[in-house]
Amino acid sequence: MNVKALLIALLLLFPFGALAQGYAGLGGSAEGFETPQRDYTFDFPADHGPHPAYRIEWWYLTANLKGEDGKDYGIQWTLFRSALKPFETEGWQSPQIWMGHAAVTTPERHFFAERLSRGGVGQAGVVAEPFAAWIDEWRMSGPDFDTLSLTAHGLDFGYDLALNAQGPLVFHGDAGYSVKSADGQASYYYSQPFYAVEGTLHLPDRDVTVTGQAWLDREWSSQPLAEDQSGWDWFSLSFDTGEKLMGFRLRGDRQDYTAATWINADGSTRALPDGSASFTPLETAPVAGRDVPIRWNVALPEYDLDVEVEALIPDAWMGTRFEYWEGPVTVSGSHAGRGYLEMTGY
Amino acid sequence: MTAAIIQALTSHWRSHWLQLATLLIGIALATGLWSAVQAINAEARASYARANAQLALGQFDELRDPSGAIPLTHYADLRRAGWQVAAVLEGPYRIQGRTLRVLGVDMVAYPALPAITEAEAETDPADILTAPGRLLASAELATLLQAQADLPPVLITTELPPDVILTDIGVAETLLDAPGQISRLVVLPNQPRSVPPLSEIAPDLERISPASQVDTAQLTDSFHLNLTAFGMLSFAVGLFIVNGTVGLAFAQRRGMIRTLRALGVSMRRLVWLILAELTLLALIGGIIGLILGFFLAGALLPDVAATLRGLYGAPVTGQLTLQPAWALAGLGMALGGTLIASAQALWRLSRMPLLAGPSVQAWRGSGQGQRLAAYCGLALLVFGGLAYTTVGGLLGGFALLAGLLTGAALLLPLCLSIALNLCARRARGPVTQWVWADMRAQLPGLSLALMALLLALAANIGVGTMVSSFRLTFVGWLDQRLTSELYLTAESDQQGREITQWLEPQVTAILPIRNVELAHETGPLFLYGVVDDPTYRQYWPLIARTDDSWDQVMSGDAVLINEQLARRADLWPGDVLRLGPNHQLPVAGVYSDYGNPTGQAIVSMMQLDLIAPGQEARRFGIRLDPNRATELAQTLRERFGLAPQAVVQQAAMKAQSRAIFEKTFVVTSALNVLTLGVAGFAILTSLLTLWTQRLPQIAPVWALGLDRAQLARLELSRSAILAAMTACLALPLGLILAWVLLAVINVEAFGWRLPMYVFPWDWLVLFLLTLVAALAAAALPALRLLRLPPADLLRVFANER
Question: Which band of pLDDT confidence, cut at 50, 70 and 90, is reported for residue A244?
Fold first, then answer.
């Protein structure tokens, strides 16, 4: 394992708590780092910016797009921040590590790229106002959080997109305090799921003009996973009715922990506690040498939701230094729609 | 039949075991010296390659700022434009008088290095990346580093070259006191689809391909070429021994061969069997030589490694490992060399008429051959001269050397023949006349051995002159250069100020020593700032200057550069040296700077602050009454709590410099002595060869009334006279050789030219040594002659074989 792989392990501590255990004691406690508190009052735009006193944080954007060619596409743009120590300073001595992931999924192929940087030297970072998040030449920025331009390039792909928020920010859990296990580990978690998107995808053989909608997740914490939790399945679904669902299942040795947020078309939400929603794999496919669920049943009896969620293509594998599955999905059944699925720990 | 022939052939060696030993020693010496040099070269080259692999050097393009450090903002700009680059900050780090190289890489972006992977197995990467950080170093270095109180913890790794400290760039910044600076940017593979051109983002940076990066192997080529040339010389001298012995053996076996031929053995079969015999002997001798070479190389390598580190900062370990490449090459050389050395004898044997008489003439070279050799020699001399004037450079220099040495060697027989002719004409009395005539007759048989002697002597004089000239110049230069009585290194700038304040009233002058490493197109460039003090004007020898060099420099209008930079960049007074994007200064003078491989320049302290602000001010030279130096050094250490090595006295510094110098030439002098020994041995074997032909020549003289003691004395003097003549011819050759080494090879290889000093006393010693060697070589044949039963001499007349 090289430094980078270990860094990634740190970065992805959130979904891989089990892996990080025994690793400098990071899995067990959060010495020196701040931990999320219930009844936190968000302060915008400052909270769109980084929180170096917390161990991990991300700006996680996914978009379901339709090309001028009528095909479905998906893109991902993610900036992770991981703190080795709970402060930030100028120069190479900065203990803040940044990692960028970008991907484009077409009906035929999945492209991805990864960037790594440390803070303090200007190579990567986030500024709250005017909003800018960047690593290398990858950039998500705009005059404010509602109006953003987005770009990233890999070896053989890239995209340039414009985002416009059509609705308010959405807070998960208890007004943004999102509990992640029965033991009470939690994170601050809010989203902007109402972006309208337009722009261009650059593929090896063609440029495609696309339109669609994007979902941006903001989350930060210091010690979010229970010790027995080994991975998670996370869904962000947008239904044709204008309603949306965020739901996840944290897989534990003892028991799974689920949570969900029902988002009405006007942006009003309802948090659904552990056990309200069910996520059941229906079919797996061999991806990157392992069996990964690519067809799911998602049920939320309270909202008469019973849908089948299927990957656009099975091979949406992020073969980055630390690997996971992240790709667009289609929704059918009681509700129709599109969305994104993330699966880690397989 | 074959078995019987083999038995007959080997019977010769059984009765002439000394000859067999000589032959094997000759092959072993040739192979041994050659393969020792090869082993040293191979080991050094392998070290460079290992270092490059360990540090991932020379694999990627790099971006450099020709004027010095790259600011951190450039890194961010490049990255944010899409350029995938990794930052490296490197520089020298002095610790207890040793200069180490700190290699600070951005461990987040730099390609994975074996050393990091190894160290990580047991370390938290957070420790490597955040303060205080970790230092990665070899076990030997780790001991040294761990003894320092103020350094980060050390991780031991086997994957780093000696003298290299690998660490994160954040740690290196502190260690090298170069915050926000980057030495170079490594262009990583897998750049994104399109990035804007360098000229748009950072026009002051230059992209350098791996091929054109200054690499150690290239830098040290000249040194290895030098060693190889020496190895070649030793090999050639060794082959003279083989040639002499094989000639002798064949001469002695003529009778047996004639008998075998008469018995019906075909010449073809004989030649094949003799070839097989020679091959076997070559292999045995070669293996002995390899063993010899291995131990010799093992003994010399630590010094060579020290030299390479001192001169070029090249990472070479002092440990030798057996590498099949040079072992096989050594055996090949032994085999090839033996066959070449025996070719003449073998060819003559195959041409020998079936029932040829024991005519001495059959083995003698003709006057025609002598002239042909002389023509070849002249041609080689001309070729060498032409090669130097047309090709130039180090290669041209070595071609000149090779042409000079081989050409002169080939000319030797004719020159000696002419000299003997002249002597013979002046000779009075029959005995004297006979002696000169006899010597001329012997010349062809001895000429190869004498050539070997000529080469060995010339090399000895040449290299000796070079080393001694170097030593004299170097010591003189040291005396001039190290003028301050004390050299002091404070722990911080603050302490530096306190110390100077305290010292000021007590001493003659305090000369701050401050420098910064810049990059020049010819390599690293160290820029020093000096304050105006008579010390510099008085003691810094300038080899090229304008009228008011020092005034110009002190007023900040000009720069002085060292000879290495002047020759490499072809900058002389009046030219302009570029020191950065906004700084260029005219060159006011050039100073000699022996023993330093890198370019150097001197400006006024004011200029230094302008060009590279914020350099540490911790080092000082202190001028005071020499008698007070020891006492003051002690006071300084006690008063300011300085480590013993932080206050160095001039004498200690000089001694250290001289010790390094002496080490540099240990290898050269060792090889020098060995070649001379081998040449003496070659004379012995040649004389022994000739001995078989002596009786028919001596018998008539004996019969005419000269007794054996007189003859033996003549035998000794003959050897001595020939050796003396050769030595006389070797002197001018050696001096020319020295001149080529000093004025051509040195300039090309090291970048400095040395004045040549002559050492007649050394020549006299060498001359006497040559006479002793010649006398010793002739002693055995003379002794034999003295003890020869008169009956043997009589028998010459009885049976004219």
Answer: very high
pTM of the entire structure? Answer: 0.61
Residues B68 and B206 in one domain: yes
| Minimal C-alpha gap between A6 and chain B (Å) | 7
Q: Which CATH class is domain A3-343?
A: mainly beta
CA–CA gap between residue B92 and residue B165 (Å, rounded): 10
Rounded CA separation B718/B774 (Å): 9
Write out the H or E segment, with its range, that includes residue B310: helix B267-312
Per-residue confidence (pLDDT) for residue B33, from 0 to 100: 78
Q: Where do we find the tokens 């030649």?
A: B271
Q: Say how many residues make up chain B.
A: 801
| CA pair distance B710, B693, nearest whole angstrom | 19
Instruction: Tell me the domain boundaries of chain A.
Output: 3-343
Beta bridge partners of B561: B590, B601
Same-domain pairing of B63 and B52: no
Asked if B131's CB is within 8 angstroms of A93's CB, the reply is yes
Name the band, by pLDDT with cuts 50, 70 and 90, for residue A4.
Answer: very low
Q: Is B123 on the interface with A (CB under 8 A)?
A: no
Q: Which of A1, A2, A3 is most worth mutating to test chain B (most B CB atoms within 10 A of its CB)?
A: A3
Interface size between A and B, measured as CB pairs under 8 A: 96
- Asked, for residue B642, whether it belongs to a domain, the answer is no
The pLDDT of residue A17 is 32
Handedness of CA B488, B494, B497, B500 (dihedral sign): negative
Inter-residue contact A153 to A138 (CB < 8 Å): yes
Interval A302-310 mean pLDDT: 95
Residue contact A91–B179, C-beta within 8 A: yes
Are B76 and B166 found together in one domain? yes
3-state secondary structure of A108: coil
Nearest to A231 by CA among A289, A293, A178, A184: A293
CA B741 – CA B401 distance, rounded (Å): 8
Contacts of B125 in chain A (CB under 8 A): 3, 6-7, 10
- B624, B652, B686 — which closes off a domain? B624
- ipTM score above 0.90: no
Q: Are B161 and B50 in contact (CB under 8 A)?
A: yes
Flag residues of chain B having pLDDT under 50.
214, 357-365, 801
Q: With bands split at pLDDT 50, 70 and 90, how would you rate the model's confidence at A64?
A: very high
Distance from C-alpha of B277 to C-alpha of B5, rounded to nearest angstrom: 11
Q: Do B192 and A202 touch (CB under 8 A)?
A: no
